[in-house]
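SEQUENCE AND FOLD
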Amino acid sequence: MLRVINTTRGCIVGDRIELADTSMKRMFGLLGRRGLDAGGGLWIKPSSGVHTFFMAFKIDVVGLDRDLRVIRLWQCLVPWRVTSVSFKMRSVLELPCGTVSLSRMEVGDRLQICDSCEAGAVAGSDIR
């Protein structure tokens, strides 16, 4: 599991984030799940956009550039929707609905994604 830290705001966005970095993991994503628990999510890498076809719940979607800077936000995206596609977007975070608002995330924020961050620390190595 990965931890996502918003280094701009100094807060943890999620601490149980799964990585979808193979074609099979990216294809299935969150399909078949009934929801996401607080702190959970999926980091889809690479990705330039996502859809919510066949999903049973709303999600927050965060579009990230190659430097893990937030370039697009979709809050509480309902099932059967498609995000816009961007060639600047290199990866996407799918989070529980409300996470973007609760963490006060905004376009321009810089995130850090790590697998070995110290608990409570806003530090660690970026995974790209």
Q: What stands out?
A: DSSP finds two helices and seven strands in the chain.
